[in-house]
Write a structure and sequence with these properties.
about 220 residues, alpha/beta, about 50% helix, about 15% strand, globular, binds adenosine monophosphate
Length: about 220
């Protein structure tokens, strides 16, 4: 299963990707997680990327395209992958297409999660993320069993620097301007499944699985 999860920040891509990795036994490739790891490690790429991330903008295409091209070559992508947060521009989508063609692989599906802007702000301001495994929780919609400790791996939770209201609004605008054209891009290629992301997490999950299993 070779999938893209498309949708604005806070739509639930990471949350659903974690479920899909278990069901299909394929890796989640989150460019946001990879970039945050590079920032944490203080690599040259991380130092450069941090400026864009803190401002709520996009990291330059050539950087993320290079990351994904290398990551797709890894052995664990042999049975497929879930791209979460990539592509985010038409140029990235074109570059992905080229990389997959060279590897003689094809995307199976692109799932677009649709969520209202105000719900996105509420989700992102209440998001708490595990430092170790990257799983997202929500203070209200997906609470932890034990305050500050990840249910999945026991890691510590933190609030992302870019999950502040001002930066969130900038990220939503960037999505509208630069990423939302991908909905038409993938609709035109016949790969798109559009899903109502406003439902509770478990219902979105059930619907996504039934659509994938039917297609
Ligand atoms: P994305 O990866 O698309 O940016 P996340 O999966 O991290 O989004 O989800 C953003 C926040 O919204 C998290 O705090 C998550 O727990 C919460 N969330 C995800 N899906 C839903 C949903 N269907 N209903 C309510 N909250 C959700
Ligand atoms: P995410 O974890 O997907 O919300 O991404 C966090 C931040 O990382 C984004 O706001 C961007 O600054 C950067 N980023 C992640 N993925 C990409 C991408 N595909 N293209 C450009 N920037 C990205």
């Amino acid at each position: 299963m070779k999938l893209i999860l498309l949708g604005p920040p806070g739509a639930g891509k990471g949350t659903q990707a974690k479920m899909l990795t278990e069901v299909f036994q394929i890796p989640q490739i989150s460019t946001g997680d990879i970039l945050r790891a590079a920032v944490k490690d203080g690599t040259a790429m991380g130092i450069k990327a941090k400026e864009y991330m803190d401002a709520g903008g996009l990291v330059p295409d050539e950087v993320v395209v290079g990351i994904v091209r290398d990551r797709l070559q890894a052995d664990d992508c042999g049975n497929g992958f879930i791209l979460d947060g990539f592509p985010r521009t038409v140029a990235q989508a074109d570059a992905l297409q080229l990389s997959l063609q060279k590897m003689k692989k094809e995307l199976d599906r692109v799932i677009s999660l649709d969520v209202d802007a105000e719900a996105l702000v509420e989700r992102l301001t209440g998001r708490r993320t595990c430092k170790e495994c990257g799983r997202s929780y929500h203070v209200q919609f997906d609470p932890l069993s034990q305050e500050g400790v990840c249910d999945a791996c026991g890691g510590a939770l933190f609030q992302r620097d870019d999950d502040q209201e001002e930066t969130i609004r900038k990220r939503l605008q960037v999505y509208a301007d630069q990423t939302s054209p991908l909905i038409k891009y993938y609709r035109d290629s016949g790969l798109l499944i559009e899903l109502d992301g406003m439902q509770p997490i478990t219902l979105v999950q059930e619907k996504m699985l039934s659509l994938l299993q039917a297609s």
